Amino acid sequence: MRVTRRDEMRIIDKRAVQEFGIPSIILMENAGRGVAETIQDYFESRLDALSVLCVCGKGNNGGDGFVTARHLANAGAEVEILLLAKIEELAGDALTNAKIAQQCGLAIQEVTNSRGLKSWWTKRDYDVVVDAVLGTGFKGLPQGLANEAIRMINQAAAYVVSIDIPSGIETDGMDAEPGSAVKANLTVTMAYLKPCHLLYPTRLYCGDVWVADIGIPNSVIDKEGSLRLMTQNEAVTLLPERIAWGNKASFGKVLIVAGSRGMSGAARLAAMGAARVGAGLVYLGFPQTMADVFDAGLLETVKRPFRDTGDGHLASEAADEVLKMEADVKLLAIGPGLGTHPETVEMVRRLSAEWKKPMVIDADALNALAQKPEMLEGKKPPLALTPHPGEMARLTGMDAKTIDRHRLDVAEEYAKKWGLVLVLKGAPTITACPGETWINSTGNSGLASGGTGDVLTGVIAGLAAQGLPLSHAASLGVWLHGRAGDLAADSLGEHSVLAGDLIYRLADAIVTSFERDEEDE
Predict the structure, then answer these.
(1) pLDDT at 176
(2) Average pLDDT per 10 consecutive residues for the chain, totaling 521 residues
(3) Is 215 left (phi over 0), alpha (psi -120 to 50) or beta?
(4) DSSP character at residue 369
(5) Beta-bridge partner residues of 163
(6) Which of 310, 394, 428, 438 fits as disulfide partner to 230, beta carbons 3.0 to 4.6 Å?
């Protein structure tokens, strides 16, 4: 599913009009009708009993509001229009639709100052308020009458429907100022989802989000932008095929280098994650002094004890042993629970320089590279990093909170700079590649617990071992990981989800994805 930024949407609208000859007023008509039809779907047969106020600004968002008001009135609703300007201040399609609304007998109340707004609004009560104040072109903080209208909408005891985006937030997400943005129950957006509908905190203002088809040809969006939402439909198309005559080699061998004294759980979770999503064979490399710990479990995993420092950490010489296994495996995943012993750090840096096959780098392996991030640039073997904001902060020198607030932009910037797949974990997780970016649609707060990231590392590695490019393995792995978390939360509650719970739900995540896809067909 495509997601469009502010500037991309402007270009898409322009191309639809100029290259395809679709009049802009037709696009506005389709937009307003789409909003009205969505409201009808929500309220079903009760529409003729509803009182509706459409609050319109001076721009095209307000024009959409005039069309919405007309179609709701035609469907039997009692509709009033509040215009935050004089009609003569309008222009273009917005002015045309304001005049059409007048010709249809809809009264338009013009208010031009805060006093007029307050005195008029306090005398009325509505079932539904349609927010058509500020549209996708808005940036900054709302000022003046628009800001007053936003506050009045939020104070109303009504069901609030925003057109395209809630007024007061920006299309591309970022922050929203509490009290200066409409808190919608429902947002009907035009043609495509926008980042603000998916990223926090702006996502909290949108309520339910529906997309209205306004008639823009698919060939327009195919040439614009590279941002997508990873949904079940996309996930099913990426799941590796299970050939009937396959064997362990057919489904790929993966080497996971992980674990240290006191951190064996991270290694176990990564290995089990890789096995559960279908890797043919999982090798787990760990410090040799911990052999007894790992031999006690992980029945399906082949153990490879490597040289260590004598205190349960991998020694620098372990790199030689890891490199000897390169010819026998599809890829290397490294990092969960490694620790930060100086010799382990040296081992990680050497492997990142000398390993010639795909790599997934996580956790302490990322920390080992944090002092030398230049090692990430220009690497020819495919590389995937899976940092959380704190690890990303150490890699970039940025503040973790800033990274979290601007996660989409940061992920894309560094995926391009380093030329790799960057999985920036969080809510939502972003999978950025040099050519495309995926916003994940699954997951919940139950994933914010120790060890869940280790499972994700294994999942991505296990999918890549089966032949998926790292970009597809990462975007699909993130979706399956989040889906497993959702299934776990359904039965356990978000407070009680543990990393180990995901291992058993991964199978359900895959099976139910196929089942629902077949039902859709």
Answers:
(1) 67
(2) 91 90 95 96 81 95 97 94 96 97 94 88 86 92 92 94 96 78 96 95 95 88 81 92 86 96 95 96 95 82 94 96 97 96 96 95 95 82 94 95 93 94 97 94 96 98 97 97 97 96 95 61 41
(3) left
(4) H
(5) 188
(6) 438
Across-strand partners of 372?
none
> For residue 349, what is the enclosing H or E element?
helix 342-354
Q: What's 157's DSSP letter?
A: S
Residue with token string 């024009």? 63
Which class for 178: exposed (0-12), middle (13-18), buried (19 or more C-beta within 10 A)?
exposed
Burial of 350 (0-12, 13-18, 19+ CB in 10 A): middle
Q: What b-and-e string marks burial along 310-333, b requiring 16 or more CB atoms within 10 Å of the CB?
A: eebbbbbebbebbeebeeebbbbb
* 3-class secondary-structure state, position 297: coil
Q: How far apart are CA 431 and CA 415, in angstroms?
A: 9
β-pair type (437-440, 227-230): parallel
Three-state DSSP string of 393-440: HHHHCCCHHHHHHCHHHHHHHHHHHHCCEEEECCCCCEEECCCCEEEE
Q: Which domains does the chain have, with CATH numbers?
A: 6-225 (3.40.50.10260), 232-520 (3.40.1190.20)
467 neighbors 278 (Cβ within 8 angstroms): no
- Which has the closest alpha carbon to 226: 412, 101, 36? 412
Q: Which two tokens mark 144?
A: 């003046």
Q: Which two tokens stand for residue 167?
A: 């007024």
Report the C-alpha gap between 393 and 383 in whole angstroms. 19
Burial 366-397 (b: 16+ CB within 10 A, else e): bbbbbeebeebeebeebbbbbbbbebbbbbbe
Q: CB 74: neighbour CB atoms within 10 A?
A: 12
Q: What is the gyration radius of the CA atoms in the chain, in angstroms? A: 27
* Torsion angle defined by CA atoms of residues 265, 283, 384 and 318, in that order, rounded to the nearest 10 degrees: 90
Instruction: Give the separation between CA 369 and CA 355, rounded to whole angstroms.
Output: 15
**Taking a C-beta distance cutoff of 8 angstroms, is the pair 165, 194 a contact?**
yes
Q: Whole-structure pTM over 0.85, yes or no?
A: yes
Of the candidates 130, 140, 145, 150, the residue with the CA atom closest to the CA atom of residue 64: 130
In three-state secondary structure terms, 151 is: helix
Distances in Å between the Cα of 282 and the Cα atoms of 103, 276, 301, 371, 418 are 72, 10, 5, 30, 28
Coil, strand or helix at 197: helix
Between CA 386 and CA 369 the distance in angstroms is 13
Residue 462: phi, psi to the nearest 5? -65, -35
Distance CA 113, CA 107 (A): 19
